[in-house]
Amino acid sequence: MSLRSPLGTVLGTGSAKDGTAHWWAQRVSAVALVPLCLWFLWSLLSLPLRDRARVGAWLAGPVNALLMILLVVALAYHASLGISVVVEDYIPSKASRVFWLLLLRFLLVLAGGAAMLAVLRVALGRV
Amino acid sequence: MPVRARPLSPHLQVYRWQMGNSLSILHRLTGIFLTLGFLALCYWLVSIASGAAPYSAAMAVFTGPLGILVLCGWTFAFFFHLLNGIRHLFWDTGRGFEASQRRVSGWLVVAGSVALTFGVGAWLWCAGGVR
Q1: Chain B: residue whose CA lies nearest to A120
Q2: Who among A37, A83, A118 is closest to B46 (CB)?
Q3: Hey, which of A13, A45, B50, B79 would disulfide with B113, CB 3.0 to 4.6 Å?
């Protein structure tokens, strides 16, 4: 039995269409990001950042490479979720809303994909 | 079909500035700002894999006057978004909604993020800057 009125069903109003999925995804990625971000901040503060060879050697370690890839994935996902809500809230026209949602998501996937490829190249010694 | 005027959610202008809405707005602003920081992180990672010259160029950007300023901003934005995010996760358990509790947790977030930002600055100062 549906709790929605027939009129509401026809008009497509009254539903966020994805229930609590977005809310949960935001929380799960947030929880994952707490240790990942702290690890990254600690690494930045303890690394000799001006020395590319030592930064590269650090990133090439399997644990660091894995954590960096997980950080990039979780950040891109969490940022995509959050920035989508901002776009949905503040861009009233449907056409430009869809445009910005697509553009920002593609940008995040592009940047995250390039970063993951870079980490893999360093980790596999293809630099 | 005639469109009835529907109730609108209160927009930003009609809010009295107070702890709740200020920190909520700042959470969003820091989130947007940190998304730019994510793009910078990706640029930095790509520069490591691209060779010595691109890496030096990236480090020159990040350690230039504008780079340092923006990195200070990202540091504060990160700590604020982290602490206020933990505040939200705590709220998700259904606790901490009393006015006094919200005020205390809000001020803890503000004080904590400012203190941690200065902590990172002090750490770098003692370490003699970026090595």
Answers
A1: B49
A2: A118
A3: B79
CATH code of the domain in which A80 resides: 1.20.1300.10
Q: Is residue A44 part of a domain?
A: yes
Helices (H), A1-127: 6-11, 21-46, 52-60, 62-90, 94-123
**B36 at interface of A, judged by CB pairs closer than 8 A:** no
Number of domains chain A contains: 1
**Rounded mean pLDDT, B92-112:** 95
Q: What's the gap in Å between the CA of B118 and the closest CA on chain A? A: 14
Q: Is a pLDDT exceeding 60 seen at residue B108?
A: yes
Pick from B123, B57, B79: nearest CA to A46: B123
Whether B49 and chain A come into contact, CB under 8 Å, resolves to yes
- Using the 8-state DSSP alphabet, how is residue B7 labeled? P
When computed from its CA atoms, the radius of gyration of chain A, rounded to whole angstroms, is 20
Within 8 A of A119 by CB-CB distance, chain B residues are 45, 49
- ipTM of model over 0.85: yes
Confidence check: pLDDT of B62 > 70: yes
Which residues 69-98 on chain B approach chain A with CB closer than 8 angstroms?
78, 82, 85-86, 88-89, 92
Q: What is the pLDDT of residue A11?
A: 75
What pTM was estimated for this model as a whole? 0.89
What value does the mean pLDDT take over residues A85-101?
Answer: 94
